[in-house]
Amino acid sequence: MNYLSFEPEDFATDAFFCSWVLHPTPETERFWLDWLRNNPSKARDIELARQMVLLASSDEGTAPSSETVDRIWQGIEEGKSGEVIVFRNRMIWLKAAAAVVLLLVAFGGYFYRTGQKHTYHTAFGESRRVLLPDGTLVTLNANSSLRVADRWGRRTEREVWLEGEAFFSVSKLKKGGQAVKFTVHTRDLNVEVRGTEFNVNTRQYQTQVVLSEGLVHLRLNDPSEKEIRMKPGDLVDFSRSKQRLHIRHLPDASPMYSWKNNRWTLNDASLAEIAVLIQETYGVTVSIENDSLKSQTVNGIVPTDNMDDLLSALESILPITISQHEHRVTIRGRPN
C-alpha cells in the first residue's frame, strides 16, 4: 500500500489504519511508528485522520464508514457549524470536528480522548516506542516512565519529565515562525533542544546525557551553574545530590544507546558494571560470588531481547556459570 499518496480522509477509511487507531496491537503500533519515523511530513495528516476515526467510530470501536468520514471532511473544509451527523445513535457535531482540526493545524498537537493518560511506563525487561503529538519519537528503556505536559500543543514549548532512560528523536516545530523548544526535565537538570537526537539516563542517582546529533542546551538545577552546550558525541554526567559534573567527548557515542536496538555494545565493561545493568533492566538481584570475577571485562555485542539469551551470551564469553532462582541471579567462576 502506497500510504505516501494518502490524504487524511484516505487514512480514515483504510481498514489497517483504523485497526491501529481503535484496536492497536504491537504489530500495528510498530508499523505505524516506523512509517511515521520515515515520513515525518505526514504526521499532521495522520493525526487529522486519527481524530476523524475517533470522532466517527462507535462506542464499541467500530470503524467509521467512508460516507461518514466524507461528511465530516466536507463539513471541515466548508467550515459548516451546527450540523449534526447521527452515526450508530451517536451525534457528531461538525462544528466540533472542525474546531479539532483547526486547532491541530494551528498547534500541531494531540487532543487526547477523555481519560487518556499522559504518562507512559515500561516494566522490567520491556522497551517501548512512544510517538508524541509533534512527531517526536521516544524509545523508553526498561523500568522507565515519561510524563507529557498537559495541554500539549497550547503551550509555547514542549515539555516531558523522565525517570529511567530514553532515547529522543525530536522533530522540529515552529509557531509564528519561531522554533518551539523541547525540554526534558530530570531531577538533576533540564535538556533543551529544538530538533535533535539524544539519550537521557537518570539511573544511579544522576543524569547522563549523550548527544547523537544536533545541538543541546543543558540547564542544571543549580542557579550557580552556567548553561552547558553540547555537540554531537558529547557526554555529560551530573548529580545534584553529589554536586558532581563530568563532561567528555566520545569518538563513537552509539554504544551508549545501542540498548534501543535490543542489544548492549560493551567496551571493556566489567562484570560488576554488567551486573548493575542487569538489575536495572530486568528487576532481579545479581550476586557475584567471587570478587576476582567482578573485574573481568567484556568487549562485544550481547543480545538483550530477554534475560536468558543475555546470560547465555555472557557465559559463552567469560569463564563463568550463571544460575537463576526466582528473582535472583548468581554468577560463579567456571570449574577448571
Automatic annotation (TrEMBL):
FecR protein domain ranges (all copies): 119-216
Note the Pfam families from the entry.
FecR, FecR_C
| Domain Protein FecR C-terminal: residue ranges | 265-331
Q: Does the keyword Membrane apply?
A: yes
Q: Which Gene3D superfamilies match?
A: 2.60.120.1440, 3.55.50.30
Keyword Transmembrane recorded: yes
Question: What name appears for this protein in its UniProt entry?
Answer: Anti-sigma factor
Q: Which InterPro entries match?
A: FecR, FecR_C, Ferrdict_sens_TM
Top-rank taxon of the source lineage equals Bacteria
Sorted UniProt keywords: Membrane, Transmembrane, Transmembrane helix
Residue ranges of the TM segments: 92-112
